[in-house]
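Quick question: what would this complex look like in 3D?
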Amino acid sequence: MQTHPKKRIEIVVEYPALRRLLDRLDRAQVTGYTVVPALAGRGHDGLWSSEGLAGDAGRMMMVICITDPARLDPVLEEVYAVVARHIGIVTISDVQVIRSDHF
Amino acid sequence: MQTHPKKRIEIVVEYPALRRLLDRLDRAQVTGYTVVPALAGRGHDGLWSSEGLAGDAGRMMMVICITDPARLDPVLEEVYAVVARHIGIVTISDVQVIRSDHF
Amino acid sequence: MQTHPKKRIEIVVEYPALRRLLDRLDRAQVTGYTVVPALAGRGHDGLWSSEGLAGDAGRMMMVICITDPARLDPVLEEVYAVVARHIGIVTISDVQVIRSDHF
Amino acid sequence: MSLVDLAAQNLLSPMVLFFALGLAAALARSDLTVPEAVAKTLALYLMLSIGFKGGVEVAANGITLRMIGVMGVGIVLSFALPVIGFLILRAVSGLSTVDAAAVAAHYGSISIVTFIAATEIVRGQNLPFEGYIVAVAAVMETPAILSALLLARSGQPSRNGNEGLGPLLHEVGLNGSVVMLVGSFLIGWATGPKGLQMIAPFIVDPFRGVLCLFLLDMGLVAGRGMREGARHLSAPVLGFGIVMPLISAALATLAIWPLGLSLGGAALFVTLAASASYIAVPAAMRLALPEAKPAIYLTLSLGVTFPFNLSLGIPLYLALAGLVAE
Amino acid sequence: MSLVDLAAQNLLSPMVLFFALGLAAALARSDLTVPEAVAKTLALYLMLSIGFKGGVEVAANGITLRMIGVMGVGIVLSFALPVIGFLILRAVSGLSTVDAAAVAAHYGSISIVTFIAATEIVRGQNLPFEGYIVAVAAVMETPAILSALLLARSGQPSRNGNEGLGPLLHEVGLNGSVVMLVGSFLIGWATGPKGLQMIAPFIVDPFRGVLCLFLLDMGLVAGRGMREGARHLSAPVLGFGIVMPLISAALATLAIWPLGLSLGGAALFVTLAASASYIAVPAAMRLALPEAKPAIYLTLSLGVTFPFNLSLGIPLYLALAGLVAE
Amino acid sequence: MSLVDLAAQNLLSPMVLFFALGLAAALARSDLTVPEAVAKTLALYLMLSIGFKGGVEVAANGITLRMIGVMGVGIVLSFALPVIGFLILRAVSGLSTVDAAAVAAHYGSISIVTFIAATEIVRGQNLPFEGYIVAVAAVMETPAILSALLLARSGQPSRNGNEGLGPLLHEVGLNGSVVMLVGSFLIGWATGPKGLQMIAPFIVDPFRGVLCLFLLDMGLVAGRGMREGARHLSAPVLGFGIVMPLISAALATLAIWPLGLSLGGAALFVTLAASASYIAVPAAMRLALPEAKPAIYLTLSLGVTFPFNLSLGIPLYLALAGLVAE
Ligand SMILES: Nc1ncnc2c1ncn2[C@@H]1O[C@H](COP(=O)(O)O)[C@@H](O)[C@H]1O
Ligand SMILES: Nc1ncnc2c1ncn2[C@@H]1O[C@H](COP(=O)(O)O)[C@@H](O)[C@H]1O
Ligand SMILES: Nc1ncnc2c1ncn2[C@@H]1O[C@H](COP(=O)(O)O)[C@@H](O)[C@H]1O
Ligand code: NA
Ligand code: NA
Ligand code: NA
């Protein structure tokens, strides 16, 4: 099958900042994103786990966004504006997709 | 450590079509797959969130399948047969594994 | 934006072995990791699903760890020490990050 | 009690108010949510409870000819209502064949939560009702799906192709909510009042409170759906979401006339006909008619028809039932 | 009953013991956990129940001038206490301006679970209390957040920049737990004792048992926090977690004196002032002051102040209230 | 009541029927499921409730020499039964040393849900039983794991190497379900009947209904396991899943003879011996003996022995107990 190169951005971010991050992605006009729950983790800010939490502070989410290489930089800038102030990380990788027009 | 190249297929698909997708993967004789829950997302078909849903329509799942590069095309064809009709996306990326025979 | 190459290790492992795996990652002095729940899957050891399980045996988790290419091998050795004896798989891929010092 | 009094009293019940709270919270973009795992379990609980209690009453009263008659009428209505709905939609709305068929399927099938809300209102008026109405609800869930598939195919060359009707029927018939409802009904039937007594503190006493929590969740989901889905609904489609239940109710009232149901039972039967599925049918439509847009049928069923039925519809159906019941 | 007897009796209540069990299990690194979805739902349940019951009592007793007075005092305290806390922290601890402001916000706001535990203790002494105290709890949740923001900005040039106060107020005011508490209060008010009777087997009878399960979970989370977060807390900060509640309690006792609350009501009011938020404020701080370290404020509020209040604080506040109540 | 009557009555109880419903649904590939978070919580609830109630009865009756004797016999059995099971498996099945040891561990340990189901049956016959039997259940959970490890090592050179016994004992002893059971027992003991009265509407009244929901879930999981795991079980292994409980029951009946337990207590003790773990031991085996195939031990314990005990086993053990009880 013919495939087309895209970029996959993977963001791990604290839950209270999620809505802001998604608003930023909308603003950057990405064609879509998917949110996956994270259960636990460790980073510079220490260990965390969502087990037993009744509130939102202290939970993390993973957001995956497939975007065109040409639009990577503006999207990263919006993402970075949120993640720089909040607890979280960003990674970028190369992927292939089948229907290029979808993204 | 010595590693071997494989392909990683990542599929985001609506929950009601999950069983069909997995049957297709079985048919394509992949050696395995892993299903990860998705919480929310946006795409051409709009925003969705699984929060509060009592039914299955309106939820999405993420399926990850590691496969041999040589068998990528037949697997993609099976995957595409489901995803083309349903709400969902497919991405392919390069990965390395340690035990080649496992996949 | 300037980006730096890192390695992304993705591990699917049975839940009872998770604590050991994370201890090993700590021992290998990775800067962090994220744990994502898996819902169901299939591999050489057959089908599994966490639906309805009251206990921990029979569930799987996905662990994602971003690490420096220079430290990939020692990390993989620790990971392998756990996964070789337990149900699970390991894949490695290339990613880019923005802040190199964070990892 | 007059229809207006009944409606007013219903609007001020904790059930309706918790639904309204959820609706308002979602429309105001509050982050209030009920976790998915809990929403699913509350639905299982409601079906376990309503099914079990229905079965216990059948155990106490036995199978009657009337019961079989009512079930038969229910099945016929579930087959027939989608055809009427489909024709109306094709006439007045711009929906495609497939979308019209998918929407129509929801209105031929039933909403178990609307039904449960109606049982609480009926009980609040101290009206007894036939326990087997739960079984009627169960048999009315799926025929509408078949009707809709035939209607959808009428409009287009068969390209459902690779997935046959067999697997679909299996998936729909063994859908979790159907299994839970029917299974609990059979267990209630088998164990009778003695079984009920054993588990009543779980399935009877806290029932209404659990229903309030579930309705809060439904309000949240409906509100979110209205926010996202409203732009997919044209005025004629919106109107359909109110008018179709009234048509279904009228037909059901006529159909049930000769059968001599009690007032409570007739009100519940009319409510079933007027209600629109929001769990089983949407999932079936995603499988059988994936081309149909879920934003239309989900928003209409959950965001328009359900609130209408819960607030004004059920009191009205009770009044309608009064015209034909014993 | 003497203070010592009351404290001893409280320490042996199932509530406190289940919290202790959770704490011990987490400190011993047991893998006991309550799933997140369930913990969230238990919190919703507690707020639904406490809000609804409060509303029902207001329905029965009407709005009084005293009620308005108590709410006013509560709002003033919620604004003022963070200032006091902030000044103390800046004087005795090495915390940065932002960290001190964030910690202080928690102590100006309230903990609904501490409040609920106090209602159970008050009820255990057969003391009635004013139903509107729940509304007081609701209005005391957010003013402290505003105070803290102003305090934090006093220390640094405004770089909160791109996200204004408007969206923040929206997110805080429509926070799920606030909506649930206030919404249930209003529904209880609207439906009154008749509504309560309908859902009492769900929201009243099992309430204490559910509270035990929730406190077990809080113990688990608090213990985990103590294990991870202890190294972030210096001795002065730790001390603040005990002393600040006492200061707040003393001020609240004085402030409430002229208002003539019942003994039960006064004890609950003092408890509110002395309690520290652990759900709404932490989430608001992550949005408004992301530079503040959550390891400090979460560990202090949940790992130090909450256990202190639950075990020794509440009996003490009840004794304090005895000095000024009618 | 005759054994046949008792078995028939048990087979028609809501508990057994809900388990059967789950089993049937899973075997028919229905998509009915109980969310994992809820299944875990139902298990916690059952352990909280059974532990607390046991502790309350010990508080009422005090510690007796008999209690210590029964606990001692329980510990000895938990150590000894795996040895017997292991020898049988090695003789009749083709299982490897490690697989045989892992399976045997499950049969030396206990199943708390089987125990709970037995308490309901015993209670249904109006038979009182000793409250401390819950503590006996707790002490019988882990010795079997140690036995199995020694057995497994007997067959192979020690390559468990890098992970010592210490961490394993910690993980097993502080396993969430053990902590919940023992902790609740101690809290029940500390608070006594007064504590029970406070939370009875949560832990006593709805108990049986919650048990039904949990058994539905166990049926679903067992059915799924049977579908996937059946091909891993040879005829001799399947037979072991029925015969071993009978052997354990017979030995327990003899062992308990001199101790003068009540009929209810003896029936529960025999049930404990005959039951096979399906939560604590599988998790321990994944850690201690990862080479052992979970498809074998999980399928056998949950898919064969549990249904047998729930339906026919418990009535039989009650009859057995009748031979030796006071
Ligand atoms: N560009 C994207 N990046 C990540 N996930 C996406 C993207 N586009 C779509 N998705 C996911 O796939 C689902 C279906 O996409 P669609 O078919 O475009 O509505 C969305 O709801 C998202 O969860
Ligand atoms: N090829 C694969 N692609 C994705 N996930 C896999 C694959 N193989 C195995 N897994 C996951 O790893 C688990 C254990 O694999 P195994 O040890 O082969 O049974 C499986 O149950 C899957 O969840
Ligand atoms: N190297 C890493 N690999 C994977 N996830 C990470 C890594 N570093 C941080 N994370 C995730 O991002 C969260 C926030 O990271 P930090 O801001 O470093 O505390 C952590 O709690 C982890 O869940
Ligand atoms: Na209908
Ligand atoms: Na306070
Ligand atoms: Na046993």
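Answer marked as accepted. The mean pLDDT of chain F is 94.
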